[in-house]
Write a structure and sequence with these properties.
single chain; 492 residues; alpha/beta; Aldehyde Dehydrogenase, Chain A, domain 1; Aldehyde Dehydrogenase, Chain A, domain 2; 2 domains; seven-stranded mixed beta sheet; six-stranded mixed beta sheet; 16 helices; globular; binds 1,4-dihydronicotinamide adenine dinucleotide; binds magnesium ion
């Protein structure tokens, strides 16, 4: 008999186990060492030769060298878009639609690859990029393909025509989805575009250029230029007919000042500080799921995040208790792991901003709670956080944190809920949780917010217009309302 080998001392299951890792393979994506600018249907080198490194926020791994476009590059991109405009706007709408359908189908075909790239470069959980960002991005192209040959029906007796060249500047929280929100209506309406992705998340936009080549979109119809805020500012200065911007209120205001009186059209989709309002008759378990989804989805990097919980006083204690229990089950970690609920913070700068505001919350006297969770050593991380005992005057109740941080306030009457919800310079979204249909309508009428969700949160559909009031910006994206800012009309 052969001697039995001594038993392996390591236990079959780790003592301190949560979930076995289920990482999505990154082998599916090919990332080039460096990228040029996509101008006139070709890759070109930036004229000044400048570049920067894009990293993964999960471990700070450098992923690629990205071109920093200067003013001359921006001008070249605008020229290419201008040259492509007569051809593109002259196509029958049904022909433009074919390209948009093709782009939508290619996005579906390559969805897994784009989802992995999005999570790798931006830090969001693969579960979200796979189930939200990619399907919605494709849906936006499908939806707008449907409008391309029906503009006369969308705007009867108004003779809609395209504006010309549009400049589009997008943020890092939904890189590919914001690209889709911008490009799909612009192209459906017959415009040509120059788009600048955010400096921390350029990779899906650059992969999208390859997809455009695959779709054989005519050269110059879409031009993608990478770079930081200086590149964005140069695009605002360039000879474009419209600027569409999504990002911070601060930069939005700067762009508005710059374009005032110039005749260049402008739409702005800026920050928010949404109230998620829970009444005492709401289904509490569902409401807690909605609260969690409202603030911890995409690490709270969401302009319409439900960052202020307004809960009716009589159920506040029970709601917060349930919320804390639910928070303890959120899995924070590797964005590429299919189990992950909360991924990495997008950048060092954003992490610093979150840390500063959270420190201000404690300093001003609110009570902080974070569930026990072990954060990875490398990369940018922040634990899901909730503050109770918050006053309306606290910075954490007024300023957009853009991180996984919830501020809880209470109210007694519906009137008080409305007043507190509207007590903000922003007005992008709101949530109402109640069994009573009449109360939903009563609240929706009074809330100064572009979107009001009832018994749900963070729902998006390409047919539904999205946009803000007050310092959340102006103009709508999605639906017929979202097409309108990409069109000029015959004046009566
Ligand atoms: P940001 O507004 O500076 O960046 C957004 C985009 O604008 C990026 O593509 C950037 O390169 C570009 N940009 C920056 N400065 C510009 C300028 N002067 N002219 C033209 N384009 C310019 O936002 P940032 O600094 O990344 O984030 C700061 C805060 O802004 C966040 O903490 C968050 O509160 C808010 N934010 C809101 C977003 C939203 O979806 N509403 C998205 C991103 C940030
Ligand atoms: Mg900035």
């Amino acid at each position: 008999m052969t001697e039995l080998s001594p038993r392996d001392p390591t236990p079959l299951l780790p003592i301190d186990w949560a979930y076995a890792a289920a990482p999505e393979s990154r082998e599916i994506v090919t990332i080039a060492e460096r990228y040029g600018l996509f101008i006139g249907g070709e890759w070109v080198e930036p004229r000044a030769g400048a570049s920067f490194t894009t990293c993964s926020p999960r471990d700070e791994e450098p992923l690629a060298e990205i071109a920093q476009a200067g003013a001359a590059d921006v001008a070249a991109a605008v020229d290419a878009a201008r040259a492509a405009f007569p051809g593109w706007s002259g196509l029958a709408g049904s022909e433009r639609a074919k390209y948009l359908f093709r782009i939508a189908r290619l996005l579906q075909e390559r969805a897994r690859e784009f989802a992995v790239l999005e999570s790798l470069n931006g830090g969001k959980p693969i579960k979200e990029s796979r189930d939200v960002d990619l399907p919605l991005a494709a849906a936006h192209f499908f939806y707008h393909a449907g409008w391309a040959d029906k503009l006369e029906y969308a705007f009867p007796n108004r003779s809609p025509r395209p504006l010309g060249v549009v400049g589009q500047i997008i943020p890092w929280n939904f890189p590919l989805l914001m690209l889709a929100w911008k490009l799909a209506p612009a192209l459906a309406a017959g415009n040509t575009a120059v788009l600048k992705p955010a400096e921390t998340t350029p990779l899906t936009a650059l992969a999208f250029c390859e997809l455009l080549l695959q779709a054989e979109l005519p050269a110059g119809v879409v031009n993608i230029i990478t770079g930081d805020g200086a590149t964005g500012a140069a695009l605002v200065e360039a000879a474009v007919d419209k600027i569409a911007f999504t990002g911070s209120t601060e930069v939005g205001k700067e762009i508005q000042r710059r374009l005032a009186g110039s005749g260049t059209r402008l739409t702005l989709e800026l920050g928010g500080k949404a109230a998620n309002i829970v009444f005492d008759d709401a289904a509490l378990d569902q409401a807690v799921e909605g609260i969690v989804n409202g603030i911890y989805f995409n690490q709270g990097h969401v302009c319409c995040a439900g960052s202020r919980l307004l809960v009716q006083e009589s159920i506040a204690e029970a709601a917060v208790e349930k919320l804390k229990q639910r928070m303890a089950s959120l899995r924070v970690g590797d964005p590429l792991d299919k189990n992950t609920d909360v991924g990495a913070i997008n950048s060092r700068a954003q992490l610093t901003k979150i840390e500063q505001l959270v420190a201000a919350g404690s300093a001003e006297g609110a009570d902080i709670y974070q569930p026990p969770c072990r954060l990875p050593e490398k990369g940018y991380w922040f634990a899901p956080t909730v503050f109770t005992n918050v006053a309306q005057s606290h910075r954490i109740a007024r300023e957009e944190i853009f991180g996984p941080v919830l501020a809880v306030l209470t109210f007694r009457t519906p009137q008080e809920a409305v007043e507190k919800a509207n007590n903000t310079p922003y007005g992008l979204s709101a949530g109402v949780w109640t069994e009573k249909g009449s109360r939903i309508l009563w609240m929706a009428e009074r809330l100064r917010a572009g979107v009001v969700w009832a018994n749900t949160f963070n729902r998006f559909d390409p047919a539904s217009p999205f946009g803000g009031y007050k310092e959340s910006g102006f103009g709508r994206e999605g639906g017929r309302h979202g097409l309108e800012p990409y069109l000029a009309f015959e004046s009566a």
